[in-house]
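An instance follows:
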Amino acid sequence: MSQPFRVFWQPGCSSCLKAKEFLTEHGISFDSVNVLDGVYGMAALQALGAKSVPVVSQGDKCVFAQNLGDLADFVGVARIVGVLSPKDFVMRIDRVLTVAQSCVRQLPSGVLSTQLPGRDRTYLDLGYHIFVIAEAFLVAAKGETLAFDLFERRPPDSMCTGAQVASYGQTVRDAMQAWWRSTDSGAQLPDELSTYYGPQSVPDLLERTAWHAAQHTRQLAEVLKSVDVNLHDQLSDEDLEGLPLPNHVYDDEVSLTSDVSNG
């Protein structure tokens, strides 16, 4: 009998949620290991030689699950083939960041410092993180290695309002558009980009950037709705079409808005 799969995850991690949903949708059972709940999970993850999530393991073998194609290969199911072009992804990312700017501007001051359930991350941190995701792509696109630590970066002390985070978001949007122009609108793309979870193609990393940022933008929108804020802008079904988003807005093992609505 083969050993069971294990998914190492943490609350608020969009890629973790997608990995768990991917396995469930393919009828693959697994043991769920929240690495922030007690000491066992993180110790078991590190014993595999990994330091970040999501990781899916079977016995002493494991795969970083940020790339769904790699996860599909690991568990023995067919790969999902993307349907969008690099140009489409760049346009989607800009749209996602536009909505994220609107959402973070609307975060009430009393909510900014509220922590996400199960995480040492505030809602202001979450808004900032959305733009870091796109900036992280640019790090790899410019020839450096995308390191996991970049995703753990928090806003500087001087950036303490939604408007300030949105302003930072504009600089990222401008940088993304400048990069795209520098590639002659996609005619001169590198063959491969370097990341902490292995080499990635430009389309694969653009896809991950688009849906990762979109998922966290959906979370910000959900938080705003929970405190009765009328959204000035939000992502439509058309904006999200073709992106491999999780079905749930937040991890199905944790409630996203209970702390906000009750706080």
